[in-house]
């Protein structure tokens, strides 16, 4: 199964000119730690709660500044037809926790996070345990 099918949920987005405080309110409302910044569905940046805390804490920007001033750009993305293995390799290789998923027109279609992949791994391990338990019971182990 590809990432686009597995992780095509609603992603919280903002436009580059939206204020930092507006993005903070979106994060709070949707209980997320990152917002993808888009321009006409194209991913142009990403901003995390850490980015906001550091920027405001250092006094680099005011809370009414546009989010484009603190967003990370360019953004590492992954295509929707890639698989979980590719996503884990990207996350590990680039030391990031979140990957916006894009189609081949570079339009945002979802997001995969380290937490998503850990949950998937936990579910697969539970499934494996259920599959192996009857075989072990038969052998008397």
How does this structure look, described?
- With 141 residues, the chain is of the alpha/beta class.
- It has a single domain, classed as CBS-domain.
- It is 44% helix and 20% strand.
- The chain has five helices and six strands.
- The chain has a three-stranded mixed β-sheet. It has a three-stranded mixed β-sheet with strand order 4-5-6.
- The mean pLDDT is 88.
What are the secondary-structure elements, in order, as H or E?
A: HEHEEHEHEEH
What is CATH's topology name? CBS-domain
Low-confidence stretches: none
Distance N terminus to C terminus?
34 Å
- Give helix % range: 40-55%
Largest sheet: 3 strands, mixed
Summarize the structure.
By secondary structure, the chain is α/β, with parallel strands linked by helices.
Helices and strands, with pairings:
Blueprint: H1 3-6, E1 13-14, H2 20-30, E2 34-39, E3 42-48, H3 49-58, E4 78-79, H4 84-94, E5 98-102, E6 108-113, H5 114-139
Parallel strand pairs: 1-2, 4-5
Antiparallel strand pairs: 2-3, 5-6
Task: Provide key terms for this protein.
6 strands, 141 residues, 3-stranded mixed sheet, 44% helix, alpha/beta, CBS-domain
């Amino acid at each position: 199964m590809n990432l686009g099918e597995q992780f095509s949920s609603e992603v919280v987005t903002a436009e580059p000119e939206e204020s930092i405080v507006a993005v903070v309110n979106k994060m709070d409302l949707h209980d997320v730690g990152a917002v993808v910044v888009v321009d006409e569905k194209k991913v142009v940046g990403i901003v995390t709660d850490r980015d906001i805390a550091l920027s405001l804490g250092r006094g680099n920007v005011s809370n009414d500044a546009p989010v484009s001033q603190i967003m990370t750009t360019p953004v590492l993305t992954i295509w929707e037809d890639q698989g979980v293995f590719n996503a884990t390799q990207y996350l590990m290789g680039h030391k990031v926790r979140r990957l916006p998923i894009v189609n081949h027109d570079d339009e945002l279609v979802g997001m995969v996070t380290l937490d998503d992949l850990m949950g998937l791994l936990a579910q697969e391990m539970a499934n494996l345990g259920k599959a192996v338990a009857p075989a072990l019971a038969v052998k008397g182990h």
